[in-house]
Write a structure and sequence with these properties.
- The protein is an alpha+beta fold.
- It has a 5-stranded mixed beta sheet, with helices on one face.
- It is globular and about 45 Å long.
- It has 2 domains: 73 residues, Roll (Ubiquitin-like (UB roll)); 82 residues, Orthogonal Bundle (DNA polymerase, domain 1).
């Protein structure tokens, strides 16, 4: 039994009670994925399993047998950040950074859900084949990932800029008042 983690084949632990989170952090020393509440309520441990977001503290490693896990460490391409990672930097999508890996992995999975036309609680037309990525829609879809610092506006801005805005390639420039010399 094995799992692919960030492109590398990894044997699963003999103990079937080991969570994906503990496999990543304790067995593989991939500490980017954070242990927040360890009860599935905060989203800090969100990773991608075959491209879909999961709460890794509630998922047993044996459930991932033969599947592919992507963590925050697996998103960058060498020294080049994933576009969403860069957008978090450019748009102040974090303060303390503790929730950021889970936020980023969740947002990548969420964007794929939206692209597939999966509705959320706030989706107006459940039969629509295309769903608008409004701020309300994005906030609802990211509501399972908590940020205790209050960086929610920057998080939503980063997600919108990366996946949905026509200005995605443009770095964020805050509107600052001109300072008299």
């Amino acid at each position: 039994m094995s799992v692919i983690v960030n492109g590398l084949n990894v044997p699963l632990p003999a103990d079937p009670r080991v969570s994906v989170l503990d496999l990543l952090r304790e067995h593989l020393r991939l500490t980017g994925t954070k242990k927040g509440c360890n009860q599935g309520a905060c989203g800090a441990c969100t990773v991608l399993l075959d491209g879909e977001r999961i709460i890794s503290c509630l998922t047993l490693a044996v459930q991932a047998d033969g599947r592919s896990i992507t963590t925050i460490e697996g998103l960058a391409d060498g020294d080049h950040l994933h576009p969403l990672q860069q957008a978090f930097v450019d748009r102040d999508g974090f303060q303390c950074g503790y929730c950021t890996p889970g936020q980023i992995c969740s947002a990548i999975g969420m964007a794929a859900e939206l692209e597939r036309g999966l509705p959320s609680h706030v989706t107006v037309d459940l039969a629509a084949t295309s769903i608008s990525a409004s701020r309300q829609e994005l906030a609802e879809r990211m509501s399972g990932n908590l940020c205790r610092c209050g960086a929610h506006n920057g998080i939503i801005d980063a997600i919108d800029a990366t996946f949905f805005s026509k200005e995605a390639a443009q770095p964020y420039q805050p509107d600052l008042p001109e300072v008299a010399a």
